[in-house]
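Appendix B.2, paired examples.
Example (i):
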Amino acid sequence: MAATPAAAVAVRAEDLPVFCPNPAMPLWSSHARVYLDVDANGEARCPYCGTRYRVEGAKPAGGH
């Protein structure tokens, strides 16, 4: 039986920039904060814990 991949944490454009650990994660499981680049395909995975983040809806145009 193949392992089922964990569901992605959905984020909206107003939640950007995406960082992990996110505010919903318990303090005991924290790691160093890392900002994730979701520009390329609207999805990113945390290098520390593997949590997957996915932007839902329209991504904001442009940058700063």
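Example (ii):
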Amino acid sequence: MTITSDPEVLGGDPRIDGTRVGVLQVFELAVSGGYPPEDVADQLGIGLGEVHAALAWYYDHPEEVREVRERHREVERDLGDSALSPPHTAE
């Protein structure tokens, strides 16, 4: 089981190799969401070992995780700004 990243897949976010399942997605379900690893594996269609590999990668790479989260926050801010200020005023 390998964690990889490719700018062409998930915007370069770390993911389980051969899938479109991101490390952060696994973390959010298993840790933030409180789901048991077995349920996360079942829900995402991956193996239990892949869940544990993603979680291990998350904890072993705090700087990369911080950078990914910051990139996500920037995208959310940009989307929020554009959603709140349309390019043309309604008449």
